[in-house]
Inverse folding.
């Protein structure tokens, strides 16, 4: 329970890694500048969602899987509805499709504002937390809170509440908003767009560690949209598959030190999902103001420095606000909130883009809609191996620094991935040993 | 997030098996956050800060259910460290959705998810905090209502009882002007048994309440289950209805087990 524990001459032990969602730990052993061991530990207790979903009704999947993560419940709801809709063959109304994309924009604004300002920025500026940061940067923090609130409000208009929204249903929504309800948030979103552009400028001015890697970036790909809900799964190294082929190309390894499974590409190893992957693969599909903000900030494709993910997240904030405004302008309430359909037996797969990366779901259901098989691969389990690989290469760069500086730098490197350990399972404990 | 002022109450936030959503509610109270932070010393809140002050604490907020031996020991330690212990949300208060394992074989559950089940150490049951240590107050909801959390903290600082109603969601529906969807549309709605606090969101969004705030004070669950049966619901459906985020609360557990035996 104590935060920073014993500190021997050449050992640092931090029991709980702060400012990530869930519970995790890190162990790094090194001699001189040679790293001998890196273990990202995930002691978060398993909750066994895939097991207890068997026997539940398919219509309950969006409500139940939302509870995997309080930060990105919409991602779980979206991957679930798309996978199951592929089985029953329902095609949602174009306006339902628009509303789902809009709901995702709300989640991006809320989640990215949280991570950029409250979880990650304090690392770059040398504060323990956002409250300490607020003493010197009160206006920026107040703007951040307002930005986050606007994301939450958008989710509440569409979903009833921001954490575990209630409106998402198979085939559409339980209820859709009126044009007037939607109009009420337009002025706020215009403010949020400006605030996001300011955010890009602010975080681009942060001191960035020099560190680049040859990543395989994996993201959903849609022919003409920046990916959120739909598309194939592609990478910068030639991967191009349907979600149904995901389990043929990716495998999960169960390692002893983590209650989250390590996902890897067959014969290729670790890969990265998340903002950097989406940005590098789909820069051209970003909205105009987002592209402009990126180039003003000197952010080029490909961006291979994971510390710059904070800038990319800010660019995606610009995108989410601008896209939300575009979607609202084109909204007409659909004739029915959701499409009717009959259940039939089958297997369905879907991948959507959670704020922290690709989220894969597979369901098997019977002819009554009862779930008989489930597979869920969360973004953080996909990035986990990649985080370890980054640390293998990053720690030697830190050689010679005091151990508490090294520890903090490692934490910052982990937070580049906005790890959600509740999703992957639970959180990080940090321990660096120098032999 | 420590502060120099000695008099401010020290608050700690602990996490067990959960989704993080309830502690996120504290950060989601955007308008109130900086005021709350001004009034208290957030001494231990790892989700938000690298500063982690040692106990004892005045108020301990606990999210999540107990599912491992380690956590069962931790909660004892935490209880000793906290003058007032408050559970936040359905996991800490009722065992959460992961308590669905309590009716099944957890070993089979582990084998289904993990390739090497030997690496996994988990208990057969997911249990609420109150099954392990005395709890001073239980804040309901999946997730909790952030305004109720702010009220709880404010009341504790003022030394008064928090104003958290224990009546059912039905009253919130009436106040909101919702047409009763159980009567008008025959929807399966557990609102009549469920404690208020959410603001009757689900009925306002055209669907029955699914009970995420758990049982109200003195619910008559058996009677509502009979009503579901009369309106043509199967026993399997009725069992599923009561086995969600508060499945292990005794009132919901009792009726789901009665129905399972039928």
């Amino acid at each position: 329970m104590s935060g920073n524990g014993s500190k021997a001459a050449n050992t640092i032990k931090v029991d709980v890694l702060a400012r990530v969602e869930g519970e995790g730990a890190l162990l790094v052993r090194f001699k001189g500048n040679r790293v001998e061991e890196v273990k990202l530990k995930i002691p978060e207790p398993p909750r066994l969602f895939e097991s207890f979903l068997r026997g539940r009704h398919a219509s309950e999947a969006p409500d139940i899987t939302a509870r995997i993560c309080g930060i990105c419940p919409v991602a779980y709801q979206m991957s679930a509805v798309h996978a199951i809709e592929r089985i029953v063959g329902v095609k949602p109304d174009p306006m339902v499709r628009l509303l789902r994309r809009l709901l995702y924009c709300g989640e991006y604004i809320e989640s990215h504002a949280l991570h950029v300002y409250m979880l990650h920025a304090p690392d770059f500026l040398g504060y323990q937390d956002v409250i300490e940061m607020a003493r010197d940067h009160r206006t920026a923090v107040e703007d951040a809170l307002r930005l986050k609130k606007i994301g939450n409000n958008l989710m509440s208009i569409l979903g009833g509440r921001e954490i575990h929204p209630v409106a998402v249903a198979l085939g559409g929504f339980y209820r859709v908003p009126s044009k007037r309800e939607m109009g009420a948030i337009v002025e706020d979103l215009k403010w949020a767009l400006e605030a996001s552009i300011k955010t890009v400028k602010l975080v681009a001015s942060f001191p960035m560690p020099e560190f680049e890697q040859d990543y395989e970036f994996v993201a959903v790909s849609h022919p003409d949209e920046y990916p959120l809900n739909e598309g194939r799964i592609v990478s910068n190294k030639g991967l191009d598959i349907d979600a149904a082929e995901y389990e043929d190309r990716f495998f999960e390894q169960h390692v002893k030190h983590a209650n989250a499974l390590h996902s890897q590409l067959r014969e290729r190893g670790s890969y990265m999902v998340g903002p950097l992957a989406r940005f590098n693969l789909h820069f051209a599909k970003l909205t105009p103001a987002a592209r402009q903000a990126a180039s003003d900030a000197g952010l080029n494709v490909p961006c291979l420095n994971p510390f710059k993910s904070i800038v990319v997240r800010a660019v995606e904030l610009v995108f989410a606000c601008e896209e939300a405004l575009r979607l609202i302008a084109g909204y007409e309430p659909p004739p029915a909130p959701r499409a009717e359909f009959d259940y039939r037996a089958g297997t369905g797969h879907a991948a959507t883009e959670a704020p922290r990366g690709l989220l894969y779901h597979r369901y098997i259901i019977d002819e009554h809609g009862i779930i008989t098989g489930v597979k869920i691969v969360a973004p953080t389990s996909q990035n986990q191996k990649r985080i370890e690989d980054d640390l293998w290469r990053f720690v030697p760069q830190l050689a010679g620094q005091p151990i508490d500086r090294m520890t903090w730098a490692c934490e910052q490197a982990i937070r580049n991935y906005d790890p959600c350990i509740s999703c992957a399972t639970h959180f990080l404990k940090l321990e660096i040993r120098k032999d | 997030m420590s502060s120099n002022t000695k008099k401010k109450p020290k608050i700690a936030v602990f996490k067990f098996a959960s989704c993080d959503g309830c502690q996120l509610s504290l950060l989601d109270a955007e308008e109130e956050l900086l005021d709350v932070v001004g009034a208290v010393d957030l001494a231990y809140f790892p989700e938000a800060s690298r500063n982690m002050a040692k106990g004892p604490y005045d108020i301990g907020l606990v999210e999540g259910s107990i599912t491992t031996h380690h956590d069962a020991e931790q909660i004892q330690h935490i209880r000793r460290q906290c003058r007032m212990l408050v559970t936040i949300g359905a996991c800490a208060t009722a065992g959460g959705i992961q308590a669905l394992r309590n009716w099944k074989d957890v070993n089979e559950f582990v084998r289904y998810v993990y390739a090497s089940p030997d690496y996994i150490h988990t208990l057969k049951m997911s249990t609420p905090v109150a099954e392990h240590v005395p709890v001073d107050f239980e804040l309901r909801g999946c997730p909790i209502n952030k305004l109720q959390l702010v009220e709880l903290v404010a009341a504790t600082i003022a030394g008064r009882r928090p104003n958290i109603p224990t009546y059912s969601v039905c009253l919130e529906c009436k106040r909101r002007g919702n047409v009763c969807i159980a009567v008008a549309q025959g929807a399966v709605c557990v609102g009549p048994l469920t404690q208020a606090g959410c603001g009757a969101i689900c009925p306002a969004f055209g669907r029955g309440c699914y009970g995420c705030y758990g049982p109200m004070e003195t619910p008559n669950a058996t009677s509502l289950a009979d009503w579901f049966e009369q309106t043509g619901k199967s026993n399997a459906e009725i069992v599923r209805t009561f086995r969600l985020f508060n499945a292990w609360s005794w009132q919901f557990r009792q009726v789901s087990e009665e129905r399972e035996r039928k």
